[in-house]
Amino acid sequence: MKTYAELLAETKARIKEITVKDAKALRHTTGDPVFLDVRDPNEYNLGKIPGAITIGRSNLEKNVEAQVPREKTVIVYCANGNRSAFSADVLIVMGYEHVRSLKEGFSGWVADGGEVE
Question: Which domains, and CATH codes, for the chain?
Answer without folding.
Answer: 4-111 (3.40.250.10)
